[in-house]
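Ticket 4471: requesting a sanity check on a complex prediction with nicotinamide-adenine-dinucleotide. Repro inputs:
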Amino acid sequence: MTHLVTCIPGDGTGPELMEAAKIALAATGADIRWIDMEAGADVMDKYGTPLPAEVLASLRETRVGLKGPITTPIGSGFRSVNVALRKELDLYANLRPAVTIPGVVSRYEDIDLVIVRENTEDLYAGVEHMVGPDAAESIKIITRAGSDRICRFAFEYARREGRRKVTAVHKANIMKLSDGLFLEVARAVAGEYPDLEFEDRIVDNMCMQLVQKPELYDVLLCPNLYGDIISDLCAGLVGGLGVAPGANFGREVALFEPVHGSAPKYAGQDKVNPTALILSAVLMLRHLGEREAADALFQAVKDVIAEGRSVTYDLGGTVGTRAMGTAVAVRTASLLGRS
Ligand code: NAD
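Returned structure tokens:
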């Protein structure tokens, strides 16, 4: 079956990362037809916007996208294209697995966590204002409907992927109404999934527990802000941003992208690690039902890193982005008996 997929390489190091990921993906034999789209800082002059309307139209049509990182100017300039994509397409669920890859230097072994982050509400709703010249207010928005759909997403994901436990993260002891509502909904939804263990943790305790006893946890269900912070903490547990993949899901569209940014200081140098984008592509293959291709590509990444010869600088190697992508492709083809 041919899969139509919107491809957004992004800017900074995005285009070279996407080239490497496409080389690796091609080796799986999955039948993907790419619809290539431009977005980001580099297209401002051409389109007058970093997010041309045809990018959104393509994602709505293909319903699946693979995206490289896109730069967001600090303080002034255009608003975040990443946040705009999530808002426009109502990509309410952000999934960030944190899994140990042997060969990646980290303080821990055998980490296998998945963070499910609500992507549209909380302090990210963008409702803030000055109260006179010397005070500012940001409004934290938590709704029953928004909490219900992310809780259901987390439990459905846990059941589908054979996970054992969901832990809701909150600060309902202090924010009794907003986080209290999130926790109330999580408990109610948990009651519909008696096959899955459920518990909750206050966010500060959660951070300490993840550093001390990460093996006790499985799927972490978080409102937006706690999810943002905890997913970077968990990326740190497995060796950092170079190996952290992500996915955003709405009711209609799924968009796969690494957690890291555009690392602009390395742009055009064929230097940065394509692993996070390739692992995002693994999540995409699973979403497309291409399980065999996904498993082979994931195993190939692990093999190439464990062997340690064809890895980028951040993993202690000397090869470039393209060479690492090519090494993953060669290993993938060999695992699938296609070489
Ligand atoms: P960054 O993730 O781009 O880079 C931080 C550092 O992490 C880099 O200097 C590099 O040392 C390392 N790094 C990141 N990706 C790597 C990789 N693939 N391989 C090896 N090392 C890697 O974070 P930043 O510097 O804070 O952000 C740069 C730009 O990216 C900003 O404009 C930011 O807004 C944007 N950003 C975009 C996204 C996205 O597109 N989803 C996410 C985060 C940040």
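Notes from triage: Residues 144-160 form the longest helix (17 residues). Leaving this open until the requester confirms.
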